[in-house]
Design a protein that fits this description.
Largest sheet: 4 strands, antiparallel
Distance between the termini: 61 Å
Strand order of the largest sheet: 1-2-6-3
Order of helices and strands: HEEHEEEEH
Radius of gyration: 24 Å
Length: 207
């Protein structure tokens, strides 16, 4: 009986160690997660020239008060990456991010993430798509700096990596090829089941 008692005690100790290990493993990941680590809602980005584009951050580097720290490991898994100089031929302008029903209401804030548009000028005239909460820690203003966006550029030469612009306060554009959009696992399961069903139906007809 004592032998079994020792086994039970050891199991409890082992489970406790495993639990602590899991907690210590996931805590750093949670601390560095973006404000919203979920797939981007359709009204937070645009599709143009065969690519998806997201206005992901108001700073390429957290160098001053108000800048959000970039954090997009989750979105990398969704196919997103920082737009490079080679992507800029197809890049949108800030105006392309204005459309009715975009996540940030005109002169307001996204009701889900709190994202806003700041550093405004007269070209800002309607609802806009700003995805900063999905690509940063949200430790700054969670805003898209309108006047530094592509085509506005009061203080920059373009988006980060556009026209040689590499300053830390440049607006950061994220891009995703449409073919890179992950297909939900449920779709593959449904397809497999459908193929199996068709196969069974054919066998029945033959027999």
């Amino acid at each position: 009986m004592k032998h079994y008692g020792k086994i039970k005690t050891n199991k409890k100790v082992t489970l406790g160690i495993c639990a602590l290990s899991l907690i210590s493993f996931f805590m750093p990941m949670s601390a560095n997660a973006a404000l919203f680590d979920v797939p981007l809602p359709s009204n937070t980005f645009i599709t143009l020239n065969g690519f998806d584009w997201a206005w992901g951050a108001s700073c390429a580097e957290n160098f001053a008060t108000g800048c959000d720290t970039l954090s997009f490991a989750f979105q990398t898994g969704e196919g997103w990456s920082i737009a490079q100089a080679s992507d800029m031929t197809n890049a949108p302008t800030a105006l392309d991010f204005l459309f009715p029903g975009a996540n940030v209401p005109f002169n307001g804030a996204d009701p889900v993430t709190g994202a806003t548009f700041g550093f405004l000028n007269s070209a800002y005239t309607g609802d806009g798509a700003c995805a900063t909460a999905y690509f940063t820690l949200g430790d700054g203003d969670i805003d898209c700096g309108w006047s530094n966006g592509g085509g506005q550029n009061i203080g920059t030469e373009g988006w980060f990596n556009q026209n040689g612009e590499t300053r830390p306060f440049a607006e950061v554009l994220f891009v995703r090829g449409i073919s890179e959009v992950p297909v939900p696992a449920a779709f593959w399961l449904f397809g497999t089941a459908l193929i199996g069903f068709v196969g069974m139906s054919r066998r029945r007809k033959v027999s």
